[in-house]
């Protein structure tokens, strides 16, 4: 995926504290023209509006120690361009809850939302989300082993199963 030259909105990010000795960065810092740019492509579901937010991290030389300081990007904005949390949740919902194959998810996103996502990216998004919820697994396994029924158990599958079996 490539960065767009026409983001829907731009957020200028400035460092506020120098990490080297903790001094506050103020207008006396020497600001540099070079900025680092990352874009987040996201969509509110079920809205069809795709929004690209560009984050521009500025850097300066600290007026106290003279060292370079750069603004930090928001959590999850890790590369030049990536899909945001709403689109990721949409993909996981289709892939995991509805067991829709990656290639068909690519088509659904393209036809219904105008989003171009490769099937490799669909797989990557699902893998990343799985890694994020993995820390919850031991607690859930303990609850099941101790016979504590989850409070919001969806029994749809069970009743379908019972019907199939009867
Ligand atoms: Zn400093």
Side by side, the strands of the main sheet go 1-4-3-7
Shape: flat
Q: How many angstroms does the end-to-end distance come to?
A: 50 Å
Low-confidence segments, given as residue ranges, are 157-166
Number of domain units: 2
Bound molecules: zinc ion
Mean pLDDT: 86
Helix proportion = 25-40%
Give the tally of β-strands: 7
Order of helices and strands: EEEEEEEHHHHH
Element layout with pairings:
Blueprint: E1 9-13, E2 30-31, E3 36-43, E4 50-57, E5 59-61, E6 68-70, E7 81-83, H1 85-97, H2 102-113, H3 119-133, H4 137-145, H5 156-165
Parallel strand pairs: 1-4, 3-7
Antiparallel strand pairs: 2-5, 3-4, 5-6
Helix pairs in contact: 1-3, 2-3
The structure holds zinc ion.
How would you explain this protein's 3D organization?
Helix 1 (85-97) packs across helix 3. It is flat, with a radius of gyration of 22 Å. The protein has 166 residues and is an alpha/beta fold. The model is unreliable at 157-166 (pLDDT under 50). The protein folds into 2 domains: 7-82, no CATH class; 84-133. It has 5 helices and 7 strands. The chain has helices at 85-97, 102-113, 119-133, 137-145, 156-165; strands spanning 9-13, 30-31, 36-43, 50-57, 59-61, 68-70, 81-83. The strands form 2 sheets. Strands 1-4-3-7 form a 4-stranded mixed sheet. A 3-stranded antiparallel sheet has the order 2-5-6, with no helix packed on it. The protein binds zinc ion (ZN). Residues 18, 20-21, 23, 62, 64-65, 67 line the site of zinc ion (ZN).
